[in-house]
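User: structure tokens for this one?
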Amino acid sequence: MSTDDSKAHPPFAVTVDLAVFTIRDGAFSVLLIERGVEPYAGSWALPGGFIEPDEDAEAAAWRELHEETGVERFGRHGGHLEQLRTYSAPGRDPRMRVVSVAHVAFAPDLPEPHPGSDAAGARWWAVDDLLVRPADADAAVTADVPHLAFDHAEILRDAVERIRAKLEYTTLALEFVAEPFTLPELRRVYTAVWGSAPDLGNFRRKVLGTDDFVVPTETHGTASGAGGRRALLYRRGAAASISPPMLRAIG
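Assistant:
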């Protein structure tokens, strides 16, 4: 006869944490909230919360995203939300055993955030500012870089890598340019997210050589300079993936 050994396992909680990214003023940016309650009161963290008894992890992620940004759902050219991974190290939360199902979101034109009831503040941070390594900067610089609560620095690093890789093999970058757009405008999206500009020649070959990545329009933009040619304008194609991928330079 089998026995019920559930009582031998103490209860634990399940949460969702969100790494929400956008591009603001040309900078790849992430949403952080300033915690207003313990643990880690006064520290900055990724938004998130406990999964309610009547919802699954995806529903909780959408709920938290709506509470922090006002966004309920993403449309065809509105953004992207996906599950990142599960973080379950013992001791990651001092309150109790907590397992987090982290999600990553990337969307254009996200508004100024409004902190929830248990937050003291909320704001967008440039990703490059948060990923400064002490070996790369002096004390004055690193003093302005917040130490994230819980294991959110690890989640942030994983989420940044997920989005950067996503742009290698999908056309997600197209969601961050207004139609019609020029190739330099599209290239600036990759530059912001990757932290360095893709090689110009390779970029043009990949974008123009991938079927239905972009579609030229019959109109032209302003001339690039005195006597220069008028810029070619494009709109989004129907392609969702890039194969082979447009690899970034790493290191």
